[in-house]
Amino acid sequence: MRRLASVCLALVLAACGSSGGGSTPTLTVSAATSLKSAMTAYGDDFGDAKVRASFAGSDELAAQIRQGVKPDVFASANTTLPEQLYKEGLVEKPTVFAANRLVLAVPASGAKVGAIGDLEQPGVTIAMGSPSVPVGSYTRKVLAKLPTRRSDAILANVRSNEPDVGGVVGKISQGAVDAGFVYVTDVKAASGKLRAIALPDDLQPQVSYGVAVVKGAKHPEQAKAFVDGLMSGDGRRRLEAAGFLPPPR
What we know:
Blueprint: H1 2-16, E1 26-32, H2 36-45, E2 50-56, H3 58-66, E3 73-76, H4 80-87, E4 95-100, E5 102-107, E6 126-129, H5 134-144, H6 148-156, E7 158-162, H7 165-173, E8 179-183, H8 184-188, E9 194-198, E10 207-213, H9 220-231, H10 234-241
Parallel strand pairs: 1-2, 1-3, 6-7, 6-8
Antiparallel strand pairs: 3-10, 4-10, 5-8, 5-9
Helix pairs in contact: 2-10, 9-10
């Protein structure tokens, strides 16, 4: 709760930080942790407003919006949460703006794990996202495609269920666990600390990202321009540079 309260406070302060009088507005963006690198770079490029972004698990950010916090833009690591908020009348019609791939991440050197089958071995330690956060949901979709005996053996080795993908990356980078499920973009952003092990195609979930302008946003025009830029322009360029894929057609 302390984490959620601190992120909420940051969003409220960001929203209050925009000033009138014709000065450059401050656009508040709530985005999934996996978007941090791309969104930060895009925010620096964005000319229509000063961008102030907050990053956390998509489920936490959606919960904040339900509690009355109003960022201008909500970008999620799945499409489910934006669609739910849309049906609840809290955001405008969402747009699918990017795709990603789930991978098994291990330390760049000295890794004990070389394939998903190794996760079943006794003594191997694993970090996952919690079931409510997109990366955790995607991970469990992978495990659900395995025979029950194999998935149960992997789940028995889980030592940590993290509130966002950044927590999984941190556990692997610090050597607290042997492996974890993250997005391929997170491995790219880890500055050589991690190595990605691709999942078999038949296990790979469809990882799609959704974005929406929040209803009651202080700067709806700039918010729409920000979303448009994720589809083409500076935002699209920054997403591609970070390793994100185009949205599925």
